[in-house]
Amino acid sequence: MAKQKKTVALLVGWEETFPKAFIEAVNTKGNGEVEAVFAKVGVTKMNDGKAYDVIVDRISHEIHMYKPWLKNQALKGAYVINDPFWWLADDKFFDNALVEQLGVAVPKTVVLPSFTPNPNTSDKSHRNMMLMDWEDIFNYVGFPCFLKPYDGGGWKHVYKCRTPQEVFENYAKSGQLVMVLQEGIEFESYCRCLCIGKDTVIPIKYDPGAKERTGFGAYVQSDEFEKGPLAERILRDARVINHALGYDMNSVEFAVRDGIPYAIDFMNPAPDMDFYSLTEPYFKKVVDAFSDYVIELAKSEADTNTRHYPWRDMLKTGGKLPAVKAAVKAKPRKAAAPKAKAEPAATK
Ligand SMILES: Nc1ncnc2c1ncn2[C@@H]1O[C@H](COP(=O)(O)OP(=O)(O)O)[C@@H](O)[C@H]1O
Ligand SMILES: [Mg+2]
Description:
Layout: E1 6-11, H1 17-29, E2 34-38, E3 54-57, H2 66-75, E4 79-81, H3 84-89, H4 92-101, E5 109-112, H5 134-141, E6 145-149, E7 159-161, H6 164-171, E8 179-183, E9 189-196, E10 200-207, H7 210-214, E11 218-220, H8 229-245, E12 249-257, E13 260-265, H9 275-278, H10 280-299, H11 311-316, H12 326-329
Parallel strand pairs: 1-2, 1-3, 3-4
Antiparallel strand pairs: 5-8, 6-7, 6-8, 9-10, 9-12, 10-11, 12-13
Adenosine-5'-diphosphate binds at residues 107, 146, 148, 152-156, 158, 182-185, 208, 253, 255, 264-265.
């Protein structure tokens, strides 16, 4: 019996250069065994089965109706890049706290309450929230510092602040967003790594300052991060980040200060992969690595790793409930009557 062709489906938005090159590369290297297509998403029904073996999602952050489709596809056994459950749960503050514990240097960061309260709340809704101690915050993060959304992207609402006054002015512009305030790393160089499948890390010198001149940060051709102790540390840290967060497609940025790479932005589950911004040599590396990776995945039995979600085990048993734990079942004990305190002896 002929082997069934495996399929890799691409979900994209406005992009032109990456999808075309990616699909061509998979179809050429897939050698008739693996085929790449544009995903087709109709009205999603609950009992839809697995439509593709691997799905590469580059747009669900902008087209939200793809999210339930992607989750349903993961439920049915597809391998979705990136994990649609984790992407929704993720945030930059948690990520900083996590990877710091794994030995990655990160800027000191605090979370601030939304400047504008949710209109459906009152003072009473905020009873758990303590007053902010700005002096303590400024002493911790120092100046300059960056104010930015805890789950942002595309440099929106990212403010570099040199004084408390600038923090207050920019904070007032952030409305209901949840913002973090973060130590500013005054860097001697900057590296953006494009990461495919957790272990393929393509480090590229990056000039964020170009944004002020042209509207975009710029990739720079250089071998600065190709070898040596700094390059090795960047490679290790990027792999630690990708393994810890589980992303198969990510860009991980490091600002290098005094020879130490600080991870600045590493929650980019649909990173820029455009030919014109990456430039030809890096674009080629990305397309090559990515097409190899999805072909390997499609040929394997891999699916999105949902083993840590409780429903996965329940599916196997048709919804059988686990035995109730003794602590939950046990009847509450009658509280023992407090012992009467001995009256102090009356003194005459
Ligand atoms: N803590 C920081 N120290 C130095 N530069 C920073 C810091 N945070 C952000 N930046 C600069 O601002 C840019 C945008 O911030 P980033 O966290 O990447 O936001 P976004 O997710 O919107 O891209 C970064 O590429 C970097 O140049
Ligand atoms: Mg960024």
